[in-house]
Predict the 3D structure of the following.
Amino acid sequence: MELSVEAGAARKGRASAPFWLTPAAYWMPVHYPTSAWWTHGPFAAWMIDVLRPSVVVELGTHFGYSCFAFAEASKRLGLTTTINALDTWQGDDHAGFYGEDVLDYVDGISRAEYADSVRLIRGRFDESRPLFADASVDLLHIDGRHGYDDALADFSEWRSTVREGGVVLFHDIAEKGNGFGVWRLWDEIATPGRSFAFSHGHGLGVLSMGEPSAPALRALFEADAPTAERIRSDFARLGEVAARQAWLLTLPRELDQVRAEVRARSAHEEQQAVELKAQRDHIDAMTASTSWRVTAPLRSLGAWRRRS
C-alpha cells in the first residue's frame, strides 16, 4: 500500500512519494544530546506531522533528545502542541545515575527554544499520573525503566490517558539482554493492523489505541510485508543520517575532552619530572656534602658487618 500525502505532487506532474516519505521525514533534529534515540529523530517528525497531536506525554526524557525532536517538529509545523516530559532526572541502573547538570541542560534548552510547548515534570511516573485525565493524550512515549515489570506497569497505568486513535511508542523493543524486557511486553500487546515495529536504534514499537485516526497511520499499520520492509529501510537510512549529524556535532566536544585529558596527563608527567629532579638534586647535594664524606668509613664498616 502506498498512500501519498503530498496532494499537490500529482497535479504538478511529478510522481507522488510514498506516504511515509513526507517532507517532515527528512527533517533533522536541531539538538543532539547523548541518546540511544538518535536514529528515530526523522520518524518522530513524521509522527508529529501525521498525528498532529495537541498533547504529548513522554515517560523518560534523560537529556531530552526525543522531547526536543517532538518539540522541533511541532514548532516547524506551527502546531500548538504541549510536550510533557516526565523524569526523576536522577537516573537508574540502565541509564546510569547522574547529577543535576542533566536537568539543568534540558531545562535550559526548553526555556530558550520551546518555552511555549515543553513542560518538564519531575518525579516518579506513578506520582504524576493524576495530572492527566483519561483520553487526554494524543501521543504517549514510554522510555523509562526497561525491565518487563517496569514497562508493563507504565503501560498499564498510562494507557487510559491515550485517546481513541492515539498512539503509544515503546523504545528498546529490540533489546533482549541486560535485563531489558520491553520486547516481551511488545510481543504481548502488538496487534495486527494497529501496530508497527522498527528494529533499528534499539527498536521502536508503534501502537494505535483503537482505530487509527490518521490515513497515513492506517497505511502504516496495514502495510504488506514488502512495503513494511521499505518503510523500515527508509527510516533506518534517514536515522543513520541523523546519527552521523549527531556524531559530527558532538565531535568537537569529544575532541576538547581528549585535548583536556592529554593536557592533564602532560601536566602530571611534567610534575612527576619536576619531583624526580628534586629528589635527584637532593641526593646529589647530600652525597656531595662534608658530612657524607666524613661518615663514609662508618657506612663501609656497616656494610662489611652485614656481609660477615
